[in-house]
């Protein structure tokens, strides 16, 4: 999967039109998050300060190689940081990356009308 790291580059989608390049970059980032296992991994890690890869296999219910693959995709997308400690890899969420995705979809002018 060809994923570029998420950068703070885009204005909220509902206040200004995205450029083609920004739309492609954001679509790639959302594609990374469209996988349920990756979304769960990111949620597990983001809810803690950090998590060891060895502790993520059981909660996800996938094999270790599969979990490692998903962690690599999330890291390549810039959503996670990886730190090697001996033979173990520890992951933490990159501050602000999820906020970028949330903010590009949100708009202060968007309100619910109850319809």
List the helices and strands and how they pair.
Layout: H1 20-33, H2 36-46, E1 51-52, H3 57-60, H4 64-76, E2 80-85, E3 88-93, H5 97-105
Antiparallel strand pairs: 1-3, 2-3
Helix pairs in contact: 2-4
Overall description:
The chain has 115 residues and is an alpha+beta fold. It has a single domain (20-105), classed as Winged helix-like DNA-binding domain superfamily/Winged helix DNA-binding domain (Arc Repressor Mutant, subunit A, Orthogonal Bundle). Helix content is 44%, strand content 12%. The chain has 5 helices and 3 strands, in the order ααβααββα. It has helices at 20-33, 36-46, 57-60, 64-76, 97-105, and strands at residues 51-52, 80-85, 88-93. A 3-stranded antiparallel sheet has the order 1-3-2. A hairpin with a 2-residue loop joins strand 2 and strand 3. Helix 2 (36-46) packs across helix 4 (64-76). The protein is elongated. The N and C termini lie far apart (39 Å). The relative contact order is 0.21. Mean pLDDT is 81; it is low at 109-115. Keywords: DNA-binding, Transcription, Transcription regulation. One of its GO terms (molecular function) is DNA-binding transcription factor activity. This is Arsenical resistance operon repressor. InterPro entries: ArsR-like_HTH, ArsR_HTH, HTH_ArsR_DNA-bd_dom, HTH_MetalResp_TranReg, WH-like_DNA-bd_sf, WH_DNA-bd_sf. Pfam families: HTH_5.
